[in-house]
């Protein structure tokens, strides 16, 4: 199955496509959807549906410390890593410019997992009102 996150409203952004050979590590760039957005929840799903809600919620976490900027100005990298034992790790953080005395990637790991009874999805909807605040960045064209 595809592994990815909810972005652009309720769309499912697949980061690791189905039938990918493991171990595998893939990342995708996203951006903020609001001016001066300082945090963003990340909901991790597996499935084949185009809408996130059509897929199985694996867990979620929140990226904090996003610098104040107009919407779309901050890049956020989400990386998924599946090891040889099929253990999924999800990392995310703000991509910062080099040379400013801060790490180029501030890492957050997914800690909350669904137990299969739907409590994770219910808690996510209650906490964030079902609205997740990331948008997929278009791929940059290489010169």
Write the layout of secondary structure elements.
Layout lengths: L1 E6 L3 E6 L7 E9 L6 E9 L8 E9 L10 E8 L5 E7 L13 E2 L2 E2 L5 H10 L5 E3 L7
Antiparallel strand pairs: 1-2, 1-4, 3-6, 3-10, 4-5, 5-9, 6-7, 7-8
Provide structural commentary.
The structure is a single chain. The protein has 143 residues and is mostly beta strands. The chain has one helix at 119-128, and strands spanning 2-7, 11-16, 24-32, 39-47, 56-64, 75-82, 88-94, 108-109, 112-113, 134-136. A hairpin with an 8-residue loop joins strand 4 (39-47) and strand 5. The model is unreliable at 99-109 and 111-115 (pLDDT under 50). One of its GO terms (molecular function) is ATP-dependent protein folding chaperone. Keywords: ATP-binding, Nucleotide-binding.
**Could you tell me the radius of gyration in angstroms?**
15 Å
The CATH topology corresponds to Substrate Binding Domain Of DNAk, Chain A, domain 1
**CATH architecture label:** Sandwich
- Secondary structure tally: strands: 10
Describe the largest sheet.
Answer: 5 strands, antiparallel
Task: Please state the overall shape, judged from the principal axes of the Cα atoms.
Answer: globular
Q: CATH-wise, what's the superfamily?
A: Substrate Binding Domain Of DNAk, Chain A, domain 1
Total of DSSP H or I helical runs spanning 4+ residues: 1
Q: How many domains would you count in the coordinates?
A: 1
The percentage of residues in β strands lies in 35-45%
Low-confidence stretches: 99-109, 111-115
Question: Which bin fits the share of residues in helices?
Answer: under 10%
The string of secondary-structure elements, in order, is EEEEEEEEEHE
> Whole-number average pLDDT?
76
- Order of strands, widest sheet: 2-1-4-5-9
């Amino acid at each position: 199955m595809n592994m990815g996150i909810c972005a652009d409203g309720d769309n499912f952004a697949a980061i690791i496509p189905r039938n990918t050979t493991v171990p595998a590590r893939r990342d995708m760039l996203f951006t903020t959807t609001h001016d001066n957005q300082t945090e963003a929840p990340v909901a991790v799903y597996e499935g084949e549906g185009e809408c996130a809600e059509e897929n199985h919620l694996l867990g979620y976490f929140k990226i904090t410390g996003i610098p104040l900027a107009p919407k779309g100005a901050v890049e956020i990298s989400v990386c998924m890593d599946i090891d040889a034992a099929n253990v999924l790790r999800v990392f995310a953080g703000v991509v910062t410019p080099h040379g400013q005395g801060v790490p180029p990637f501030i890492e957050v790991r997914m800690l909350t997992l669904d137990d299969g009874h739907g409590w994770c999805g219910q808690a996510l909807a209650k906490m964030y009102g079902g609205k997740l605040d990331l948008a997929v960045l278009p791929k940059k064209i290489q010169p």
